[in-house]
Amino acid sequence: MDIYESTEKNAEKISEMFSNSFDLTLREFSVNGKKAAAVSLDGMVDEMKVTESIIKPLTDKANFNIFNSTFEQIKKTAFKGVSINEENDLEKLAQSVSDGNLILFLEDCDSAFVFSVQGFPKRGIDVPQSEQNERGSSESFTDNFKDNVSLLRRRLRTPKLIFVQKEIGTISRTNVLFCYLDDRADKEMVKKIEKRLEKTDIDTLLGSGYLAPFLDNRSTSLFSDTGFTERPDMLAAKLTEGRIGIIVDGTPFALIVPYLFIDYFHSLDDYMTNSLYATFIRFLRIACFFISTALPGFFVAICVFHPEVLPSSIMLDIATAEAKTPFSLTFEAVAIHLIYEIVREAGLRMPVAIGHAVSIVGALVVGDAAVTAGFIAAPMLMVVALTAISTAVISKLNDSVALIRFVLTIIGGLTGFFGLFVCIGLLLADICSVNPYGVPFSTPFSPFVKKSWPDAVYKRNSRILARNRERIKELEF
Question: What's the pTM?
Fold first, then answer.
């Protein structure tokens, strides 16, 4: 819809498009004796910049006649300190206002000016909340994608760092950036991810998590091959490996594709400590994964079907403690884990000021009172506590681990070791079947890639790793 030559009609039409919303600001004034109107949304523009860079030059009588000048003359002479474009479509102008721009209508002009003067409030750079490191940077991504770009640029100061902007969401029209190093990322992989982003059919995109299902290669898998991070240094490290990062405006978490299973056990601190200690911690994280998923199931299976596995003295103590409880061992294990998930969710959603109260109540009620009353046996409570602590070590896998743990606990209580090993085999098959963008999710275990082990499984000396120029796409099979 083309704009009218009448400033008053244009202003009325824009007001109708926004249904006279209370935050729609309309400034009417005179420029060289003719009517003019500036339209913006309150709180979305920088008022100081609007006054000094737009209104003041327009109302300055000593200024040249804007109506008798070309767009380039106006751009170079009148508005030197602000980005300006021309537009003659009312719907596009309304969208520009929604994006935080200011539009200027002039009487008898067949086009309007669009000024980029965004000034909406935003959160400052903060300490990472979910990815704590002992010696790493204390900066995390913010909710503003332009700030996130600058954080990444500071760590990768090279013209090879490419950012491509997309707009996703028919209603939210959210800005999405996918970034990569041009000399390291595989071109075919970049095209595939760009095509998937273009085909993303969604109304509102309110966070990076909305995009993950559209980027995953298998929606039915228990594990996601799209990783996430709130640390700019972590994303920079992955980009140097040939990965691709995706930054969504309005969320402090960036996505990483492709993401391998072994990546869940890595931390930035691994590269800032002794190689032997870093290797030990990596194997500890892998052990915690097996403890958090399989320990309750194996404990129930041993107590119900295979008591000969444990020494008779230990088994006798466990049997004595379980004889005082009214429930079966399988039901007890599932119930305690369910209570743990309830306490964890409550602590996560409650206000920070009173969140610690949930932990205190959970420890007193579930821990001491339940054992004293005879509802829960102490050995089972110890198993659940060790499982919960192990889950915290691999927090990024919590969603998958919680589901696997419940399934293995029930299967272990019903079928013993046989059912457990069948389920573990199916779990390994699921991990090995995911193949994100031509790179096996289970690399370097299956297929076995010897050259990837010095950094993927154990950590070699930094001097050796500094000479490693391996790319993620080189692992393709």
Answer: 0.82
Residue closest to 161 by CA, chosen among 176, 145, 177: 177
* Rounded Cα–Cα distance for residues 187 and 176 (Å): 19
Could you tell me the strand order of the sheet in which 83-87 lies? 24-31, 34-41, 102-106, 112-116, 83-87
Is 461 exposed, middle or buried, given 0-12, 13-18 or 19+ CB atoms closer than 10 A?
exposed
Length, in residues, of the chain:
477
Residue pair 73/63 in contact (Cβ under 8 Å)? The answer is no
Which residue from 336, 307, 305, 321 is spatially nearest to 411, judged by alpha carbons? 305
Q: Which of 137, 141, 138, 96 is nearest to 117 (CA)?
A: 96
- CB distance 450 to 273 below 8 Å: no
Report which secondary-structure segment, H or E, holds 327.
Answer: none
- The Cα-based distances of 2 to 86, 88, 223 in angstroms read 13, 6, 50
Q: How confident is the model at residue 467 (pLDDT cuts 50, 70, 90)?
A: low
Query: Is 293 a residue whose pLDDT tops 50?
Result: yes
Instruction: Give the single-character DSSP code of 123.
Output: P
